[in-house]
Design a protein that fits this description.
about 300 residues
Length: about 300
């Protein structure tokens, strides 16, 4: 990873080549999009927003050309890039100017919340919109599915997911932006501040007012009806900020000793089989501003 980071920072052409290549590879391997965004974030963190904008504008034509040749749709390729890259540049710029990782996390969450509110403002009935889109996309699969597949149950599942699809997509985008930002910050530390990333990440915590906002949104969920669905969609991207904070807490508490590292590996293995553990991890981030979990469990920043 250090070699890749050095290559990116060698010059503008090298950075554009890496960004565009990784984004094209992401059409086959989706995780490559995280590295593409990180490759855009790194020059932004180091040299500022103008550099990030130049890198983005340099990579877009290459991705658009590949999109036209491979998928026959350059606009779709450009749209996907902009959805990924604009938030990454903005969040990276916030981190560069403030040096506060927590503020960058809240900025990413705020962008996710704004996207949900904007979608609800533009689309009259988001649930029906996603219901139509998802069912249309699944028609070929349903037509070719074996008789053992319960089409009615699958359709019902789609209808249930449609209620929260707006928030789920926003949450996925927020998490992608934050992962890319953390990768870029790690690269920056490898090149220019060895050992600087670890204490910054392990000390990550959101302020109390962020937890209060989450509680306020949760109270809206409990109201039920259309208001409850809207609040639930807002809550999903907000939760992503607390999930990242929760992972920082787990790494801080478990990463300081050999036995702790064993438990850390166990947490990641458990996540592969017990998805609801993400809720518990998020709750660590929610309660941390109030009870200082790291201090209580013996984490020493030094």
């Amino acid at each position: 990873m250090g070699a890749l980071a050095r290559f990116i920072m060698r010059g503008k052409s090298q950075a554009v080549l890496v960004i565009s290549s990784l984004m094209i590879v992401s059409w086959l391997l989706s995780l490559a999009s995280l590295l593409a965004s990180a490759a855009l974030s790194l020059p932004t963190l180091r040299r500022g927003g103008r550099e990030g904008l130049l890198m983005m504008l340099g990579a877009l034509p290459l991705v658009a050309l590949a999109g036209q040749l491979v998928m026959g749709d350059a606009l779709q390729a450009i749209g996907f890039c902009l959805i990924m890259w604009i938030p990454v540049v903005l969040v990276s710029l916030v981190l560069r100017e403030t040096t506060q990782l927590s503020l960058s996390v809240m900025t990413a969450v705020g962008l996710g919340v704004i996207s949900v509110m904007g979608f609800y403002a533009i689309v009259d009935d988001p649930t029906s919109f996603w219901d139509t889109q998802l069912l249309e996309a699944m028609k070929p699969m349903l037509a070719q599915s074996p008789e053992s597949v319960d089409g009615d149950r699958l359709t019902l599942t789609v209808k249930m997911f449609s209620r929260f699809a707006t928030g789920a997509i926003a949450a996925g985008s927020v998490l992608s932006v934050l992962i890319s930002l953390l990768i870029a910050r790690w690269w920056q530390a490898l090149l220019y501040n060895p050992g600087g990333f670890r204490p910054e990440f392990l000390g990550l915590g959101l302020p109390k007012w962020a937890s209060l906002i989450l509680i306020l949104i949760l109270s809206g969920v409990l109201l039920g009806g259309d208001v409850g669905i809207f609040a639930a969609n807002l809550m999903l991207p907000v939760f992503m900020g607390f999930i990242v904070t929760g992972f920082a807490i787990i790494h801080a508490v478990c990463g300081g000793s050999p036995s702790g590292r064993f438990w850390l590996i166990g947490v990641y293995i458990a996540l592969m089989f017990i998805a609801p553990m993400l809720l518990l991890i998020a709750l660590l981030g929610v309660f941390d501003p109030w009870i200082n979990i790291r201090k209580r469990l013996g984490y020493n920043p030094a």
